[in-house]
Write a structure and sequence with these properties.
Length: about 170
């Protein structure tokens, strides 16, 4: 018996000690999405470290810059990666030390810099991207194509809805 005089079975049946909504489909979906993301991220982090002695954040910065051939301001890079300016600054410096990116003064605003891939950085990104593509394929191996298509569609709709709600 617990302090409230109820057996464990009785407590689990009346669920008065559980927050409202704890069993909702919304919460179950959210927890499932986070679990899948964490498993995938852990797998990718380990693979980048083991195979290339690099990190997932470095790959993410290279990918964002690859998608923006004219470069990005640090604030744009932070926004694209959903991380703070401080976090991006550290990663950009690491990539500069390796010769993968260069930062130049922004001619339109001399207080900011534009970060671009170097030719070495572009080659490195393409090498990492090929491996990344394979690792993601390994993670999703066995999931039928029709289910992947349904998930991509449903998650695209969810992302759009969440983005609209976030702006309100």
């Amino acid at each position: 018996m617990s302090n409230n005089g109820k057996s464990p079975a009785a407590r689990s049946d009346d669920r008065q000690d559980v927050p409202a909504g704890a069993g909702s489909a919304d919460l179950r979906l959210w927890v499932r999405l986070l679990a899948c993301a964490k498993i995938g991220e852990k797998h990718l982090r380990r693979r980048f470290e083991d195979n290339f002695e690099t990190t997932l954040p470095r790959f993410d910065v290279l990918a964002a810059l690859y998608a923006a051939p004219d470069g990005l301001r640090m604030s744009e890079l932070s926004k694209a990666l959903l991380v703070s300016n401080g976090n991006v600054t550290v990663v950009v410096r690491q990539l500069q030390d390796r010769g993968h990116v260069e930062a130049q003064v922004n001619p339109a605003d001399r207080r900011s810099a534009i970060v671009r891939l170097t030719p070495t950085g572009k080659a490195r990104f393409l090498e990492l991207a090929e491996a990344h593509y394979g690792w993601v394929g390994d993670l999703l191996d066995g999931v039928p194509e029709d289910q992947k298509t349904l998930l991509v569609t449903a998650l695209g709709e969810l992302r759009a809805k969440m983005a609209r709600n976030d702006r309100q």
